[in-house]
Amino acid sequence: MKFYNVIIKYRFWLSIIALVAAVALNVTHSAGFWPTFPLYFLAVIGLFSHFFIGPMRLIQGPMEQGNIEEVEKILSSIWFPNLLFKPIRSTYYTIKGNMAMMKQDFDTAEKHLKKSSELGAPMPEAEGANKLQLGMMALQRGDMKGGEGYIRAAIRAGIPDKESEAVAYLSMCQIFMNKREFRAAKEFFRKAKACNPKSKEVVAQIKEIEKYISRIPG
Questions:
Q1: Closest of 61, 72, 124, 65 to residue 98, by C-alpha
Q2: 90 — alpha (psi -120 to 50), left (phi > 0) or beta?
């Protein structure tokens, strides 16, 4: 596996070396095409995979280790992201968006996540997570209508974990509280509790809403 990762990391330069070697053999030794075909073949496959598949496989390890600098280094090695195959390009923009959010650069994060959402995520759960993030950013800007639309779309697409699903339902609960549609707000609150979230922030938010939602008509 490590050997394969090394090949992915350096395949562009290995492909260039193979191409130069093939041309040099043709020129200096008058070798025909077929004797040098394997070198040409390796060069073409290497360059094709470098530009159309990219090094996304290398990101998993650094992401799990929390090595953000290495993740950024790998992403920066993708010179022409628009050449990536569509599912890979979607993942690329998702990761770029998440990295921007970690830096609290919400404008850049929104731009990248919208690109990923427009391309369509490789898995519905990833699409749901993207739309939830876009919805939360819209709510932070005070765009209640946009936030509601994105969060509804996230719920329809499917959200990958119960914590995030609870956040989505709590956000919808608060949206409908603001709209004074209390019956719908209570239903979303019930769904949030049913997710049985464990994180302190979400549990605290549920307890805070629970203090007054039972006294609201509807």
A1: 72
A2: alpha
CA dihedral 55, 56, 61, 65 (to 10 degrees): 110
If we measure between CA atoms, which residue out of 162, 77, 79, 153 comes closest to residue 121? 153
DSSP state of 58: G
- Rounded CA gap, 45 and 7, in Å? 12
pLDDT given at position 148: 94
pLDDT at residue 122, as a whole number? 61
Phi, psi values for residue 191, rounded to 5°: -65, -35
One-letter amino acid for residue 207 of the chain: K
Instruction: Tell me the H-state helices in 141-181.
Output: 144-157, 162-178
Residues 6+ apart with CB under 8 A from 74: 55, 56, 58, 59, 62
Instruction: Give pTM, 2 decimals.
Output: 0.71
Q: Position of tokens 């996230």?
A: 154
pLDDT of residue 30: 66
pLDDT at 27: 80
d(CA 178, CA 166): 18
Residues of the chain with confidence (pLDDT) below 70: 1, 30-31, 121-125, 217-218
